[in-house]
Automatic annotation (TrEMBL):
InterPro entries: D-2-hydroxyacid_DH, D-isomer_2_OHA_DH_cat_dom, D-isomer_DH_CS, D-isomer_DH_NAD-bd, NAD(P)-bd_dom_sf. It comes from the Bacteria. This is D-2-hydroxyacid dehydrogenase family protein. Keywords: NAD, Oxidoreductase. Pfam families: 2-Hacid_dh (PF00389), 2-Hacid_dh_C (PF02826).
């Protein structure tokens, strides 16, 4: 019998179009829904020897991996996936492979940086609300905020934060930044000024989050940090939902203690139909679109097929490891 490959969380039904799956000596099945129930997920995936996961959409903790005795290869898009128990996979003899993939042709520009600015403009200029008003027969309802000359604050100044900073400077925004390991020299090299955490929240007109999710950063933005922000300030999160205390942020938005928020990432994804986020005012919400571009998908899925093909032929693959 042919090796069976499961391609998960193909929400837009496009995975088949972005790679040559027919080149594989395998039977490939595409799943367009998301299975949150662990028992149901295990029942679905038990027959498959190979699973292709899109980022962290479906977690693979030890309990799930132990219940998949046929699994030999788990390919995740990207070279980092916090939702896979890599130690358990290694113990169980499951190879976990990663892929390359970024938005532009040369893979140097990050599409999440572009979405960050889309959210900044959408929330500061009330674009979704004005679009809806116009379609419903109305005309101007709001007064937007210009960003030129206002302070851009970056929580995290790695590759993404540096690209967001470059665009901010093009609009004449002073850029300040903080992260736990940021130095004055690194900040200056990125065109920013390093400040302490309190000043970052107190001085930013637009505060954008660009740090990875880890034990140190989970809940890093809580009620105390939000209380430091100006009532005219905006928070943008295109990184990971759990970095922010979501209940505290929703409370601040309902109370009008900050001007608004652009949110692309959430603690629970996909966002449940009855999730409280859907009723929060002063927000522009998008369904984790930061990396969802044609260029990224083409790179992700092509590399996934390449990894599966190499594995089936006994050739080396790009292996993720717990270190």
């Amino acid at each position: 019998m042919a090796v069976r490959v499961a391609v998960l969380d193909d929400y837009q039904r496009v995975a088949r179009d972005y790679a040559d799956w027919d080149s594989l000596p395998a039977s490939v099945e595409f799943f367009h829904d998301h299975v949150a129930d662990r028992d149901e997920l295990v029942r679905r995936l038990q027959p498959f020897e190979v699973i292709a996961a899109m980022r962290e959409r479906t977690p693979f903790p030890r309990e799930v991996l132990e219940a998949l005795p046929n699994l030999k290869l788990l390919v995740t898009t990207g070279m980092r996936n916090a939702s896979i128990d890599l130690a358990a996979a290694s113990e169980l003899g499951v190879t976990v492979s990663g892929t390359g993939g970024s938005g532009s042709a040369d893979r140097s520009w990050q599409p999440t940086a572009e979405l960050t600015w889309g959210l900044i403009f959408a929330v500061t200029r009330n674009i979704p609300l004005e679009d809806r008003t116009l379609r419903e027969g109305g005309w101007q309802r709001t007064v937007g905020v210009e960003i030129g000359g206002r302070t851009l604050g970056l929580l995290g100044l790695g590759r993404l934060g540096t690209q967001v900073a470059a665009i901010g400077r093009a609009f004449g925004m002073p850029v300040i930044a903080w992260s736990q390991n940021l130095t004055d020299e690194a900040a200056e090299a990125a065109g920013a000024r390093r400040v302490d955490k309190e000043e970052l929240f107190a001085s930013s007109d637009v505060l954008s989050i660009h740090t990875v999710l880890s034990r140190r950063t989970r809940g890093l933005v809580g009620a105390a940090e939000l209380a430091l922000m100006r009532p005219t300030a905006y928070l943008i999160n295109t990184s990971r939902g759990p970095i922010v205390d979501e209940a505290a942020l929703r409370e601040a938005l309902h109370a009008g203690r900050i001007a608004g928020a652009g949110i692309d990432v959430f603690e629970r994804e996909p966002l449940p139909a009855d999730d409280p986020w859907r009723g929060v005012p002063r927000t522009v919400l998008t369904p984790h679109l930061g990396y969802v571009t044609e260029g990224t998908y083409r790179a992700f899925y092509a590399d996934t097929v390449e990894s599966i093909g190499a594995f089936l032929e006994g050739a080396p693959v790009r292996v993720l490891n717990a270190g």
